[in-house]
Write a structure and sequence with these properties.
The protein has 123 residues and is an all-alpha fold. 50% of the residues lie in helices and 0% in strands. It is rod-shaped and about 80 Å long.
Length: 123
């Protein structure tokens, strides 16, 4: 009877250790990214891999978008939205995240009307 109780206790200790170790590893890998207060509002897109720590800005043959710096995301005209859409659909899928980060670093708000399209395109 004593051996059964000791065996069950030992088994419970081993299970508890494995649970603790796996929880610690999971906590280390679950870094939650909180968007800054000045976020463009597309943080659901931006959260997919922020590279904002680097101050270098990558351009994607989209220098003409710099004219839209600090415009509100709902204030774009149809022609301006088409400019964003054209660039969006010519980018490779793996470059989309970097493009959104580039826009945010350049303080260019992504048009609200295109956000769902862009989010669907992300890998």
């Amino acid at each position: 009877m004593l051996y059964i109780i000791l065996g069950i206790t030992g088994l419970l200790i081993i299970v508890a250790l494995f649970t603790y170790i796996s929880k610690c590893k999971r906590d280390e890998s679950d870094d939650v990214v909180v968007p800054p207060a000045e976020c463009c509002g597309a943080h659901a897109i931006c959260e997919k891999g922020l590279k904002k720590a680097d101050s270098h800005i990558d351009y994607f043959d989209d220098e003409e978008l710099d004219a839209f710096k600090n415009l509100e995301p709902d204030s774009y005209s149809d022609e301006q939205i088409d400019m964003f859409r054209e660039i969006l659909y010519t980018l490779r899928t793996e470059d989309l995240e970097d493009w959104f980060i580039s826009l945010e670093k350049r303080e260019i708000n992504f048009p609200t009307i295109l956000r769902s399209e862009a989010y669907d395109m992300l890998p």
